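Consider the following input, taken from an annotated entry for 5-formyltetrahydrofolate cyclo-ligase (Vibrio agarivorans).
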Amino acid sequence: MTSSRQQIRQYIRQARNALTSDAQYQASIDLINQVNSLEDTPCAQNIALYLATDGELDTQPLIEALWHCGKHVYLPVIHPFSKGHLLFLAYTPDSELCYNRYGIIEPRLKKDAIIPVADLDIIFTPLVAFDQNGQRLGMGGGYYDRTLAPFQNSVNAPKAIGLAHDCQKVDSLPSESWDIPLEKIVTPSRLWQWES
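Applying the prediction step yields:
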């Protein structure tokens, strides 16, 4: 099962990296419209996103649109002491950024910029692939699964919504016991939604 997950990761990563810069740009603009049409967006104030890497959907135009609407945006930072966990830090145009151990850009760690996960309204999660049941396949580190696990079945939990290119959808994903399916996944062309 692990090898098939790895094969899916490899195939989808190649597919999204093969997108032209024009296609990537158009996808990032279409994403803004899709996110703005979500019922969760208007009342959300604290929104977690991420900076794209490895062919992921470019989130910077969406981040700038959210700033323009007066929303507070937060980015994930690898927790320095709690292995496999994430912190979320405020992200503004003035934020100092650095590369983490995976070569992903994140805000430089500052204690006063951290927001408790419970105070986030939406956590937009990256993913490598998703299927028609809302299963999400990440990069394999389990960071988002660990972040979201304490909030499963909690009424006041942050809404976890996946972001992906349309080409990242597959028919079916092999899942593990720790995988947390998503209720919603947004692609540039549509919203995928499942019952919780």
